Structures are given as structure tokens and as C-alpha cells.
Amino acid sequence: MDIAAMSMAMSQSSLIQDVSLSVMKMAMDTAKVNADNMTAMLNQTSAMQQSVQPHLGGNLDIRA
């Protein structure tokens, strides 16, 4: 294999690696946004349930 072909192969390999890394970063960002949205939805649901039934969860009875 001559030097030019080897250089092109290394360049293509580097490009493929950079593209794969970019796609992985995009997927990780999307997953983080989805997780943040689900957490926000859970917090809203919890706040709504608490406002509808404010007497629940206010007291804890423990017997020893």
C-alpha cells in the first residue's frame, strides 16, 4: 500500500470515528432531555396529587 492510499484510509477512519462520536453525543443529549422531561412530569404529578389531597403524607405514625 502506498503512502497516499494509507493516508486516505487513516483520514477516512478518523472521519468515521468523529461522526460516530458526534452521533453518540446527540443520542446522549436526547436521553438527558428525555430524562429531565420525565422528572419534571413526575414532579408536576406529585404536586398535583398533593394539592388535590393535601391531608395525605402530612403525618407519620410509628409504634416501637
Question: Your description of this structure?
Answer:
With 64 residues, the protein is mainly α. It has one helix at residues 3-52.
Poorly predicted regions are none
Strand % is under 5%
Structural class: mainly alpha
Mean pLDDT: 85
Count the E strands: 0
The main β sheet shows up as:
none
- Order of helix and strand elements from N to C terminus: H
**Helix share, percent:** over 70%
Radius of gyration: 27 Å
Structure annotation, total helices:
1
Instruction: Categorize the overall geometry.
Output: rod-shaped
The rounded distance between the terminal residues' Cα atoms is 81 Å
Q: What characteristics describe this protein?
A:
single chain, 64 residues, mainly alpha, 1 helix, rod-shaped
What is the element layout, followed by pairings?
Blueprint: H1 3-52
Brief rundown of the structure:
The chain is mainly α.
